[in-house]
Amino acid sequence: MSKLILVTGGAGHVASHIIEELIKDADNKIISLDNYFNGSEANHFPGVDYRRGHTKDIDKLIPENPDLVFHLGEYARVSPSVHEPALVYDLNILGTFAVVEFCRQRKVKKLLYTASSTKFAIEGDGRQQTPYSFTKATNVDLINNYGRWYNLPYAICYFYNAFGPREKGTGPYSTLIARFQELYLQNKPLTVTKPGTQKRNFTYVKDLAKGAILVAQKGHGDGYTLANPHTYSIIEIAQAFGGPIEYINNDPGRRESNTGPDKARQELGWNTTLDVLDYIRDFVNTHPRK
Ligand SMILES: NC(=O)c1ccc[n+]([C@@H]2O[C@H](COP(=O)([O-])OP(=O)(O)OC[C@H]3O[C@@H](n4cnc5c(N)ncnc54)[C@H](O)[C@@H]3O)[C@@H](O)[C@H]2O)c1
């Protein structure tokens, strides 16, 4: 039976992989709603209905009644969020409230929200560390409460450090693995934020996309961690590229990562297929230093 699926942030990194996976089923009709604040038309796929706009205008921009909503269209970077709280509030709090209310009023069969693991850091105090963490954790509270107050059908998954194709390597919203690839290609030192021993669960973006779809199809409620079980320090990642390393200060709000509940693996059988060190090894082998 054909399904109408709305993906917010569909021109962004992880959501573009969700769309790439969803369009494999010809019965799925996909609409993306993205304001292109960090999205790119280069991430578009044929056959998808791409609409331009802020999620806070969702009611006007999406007259259809989708069966499923994947909500990824938010401000999505931890450290830069400290410098632009008003933008983060607008995109994440005002935008997400409108999305959640839309799902209630249109009787969407499932809302899938992609939460941030930053709130699990420092024994739960991580949610207070940056505007980004605060808004993401607040939205989890909001959605859990919509489940309680209105029986909203939802599932919440937690992504950990996405890496893989279409990741941005330059600009204020670039992410670490693609940034190191860029610096490596330019024969520049890899900039590691001190102390460099902080560990992260880098997770392959295609595994995250498949996990989010699995959670949307079979999950209920909060607590679906999607993380590679192996953690690596930033120094280990830089060394996998062959260095050299330049240490820098200034990365507000980042603390040791800490994984949340493991329902995705235990209940849904989700697993990862590619480790970041194998991905880097393959990249280095196919791009030998000149
Ligand atoms: N990448 C990760 O490691 C990671 C980790 C935890 C959670 N997440 C969450 O996953 C989602 C996607 O992350 P990503 O890394 O692909 O980010 P991204 O910036 O590549 O994608 C987000 C997309 O949403 C769009 N967008 C932002 N605010 C919007 C709004 N209010 N209305 C419409 N469009 C809007 C942007 O233009 C962009 O295309 C985000 O919600 C993020 O918080 C990502």
Could you explain the architecture of this structure?
It contains nine helices and 13 strands. By secondary structure, it is α/β, with parallel strands linked by helices. The protein has a domain at 3-163 and 204-228 and 261-273: NAD(P)-binding Rossmann-like Domain (Rossmann fold), CATH 3.40.50.720. The strands form four sheets. A seven-stranded parallel β-sheet has the order 3-2-1-4-5-6-11, sandwiched between helices. Helix 1 (13-22) crosses helix 6 (205-218) and helix 3 (85-105) packs parallel to helix 4. 41% of the residues are buried. The mean pLDDT is 94. The structure holds nicotinamide-adenine-dinucleotide. Nicotinamide-adenine-dinucleotide (NAD) binds next to helix 1, strand 2, helix 3 and strand 5.
**Large-scale geometry:** globular
Task: Quickly name the level 1 CATH class of one domain.
Answer: Alpha Beta
Strand arrangement, largest sheet?
A: 3-2-1-4-5-6-11
How many whole angstroms does the radius of gyration measure? 19 Å
- SSE topology string: EHEEHEHEHEEHEEEHEEHEHH
Mean of residue pLDDT values: 94
What's the architecture of one domain, going by CATH? 3-Layer(aba) Sandwich
Distance between the termini: 53 Å
Strand count, sense and barrel status of the largest sheet are:
7 strands, parallel
Q: Which ligands, by name, code or SMILES, are bound?
A: nicotinamide-adenine-dinucleotide
Number of DSSP E strands: 13
Low-pLDDT ranges: none
CATH superfamily of one domain: NAD(P)-binding Rossmann-like Domain
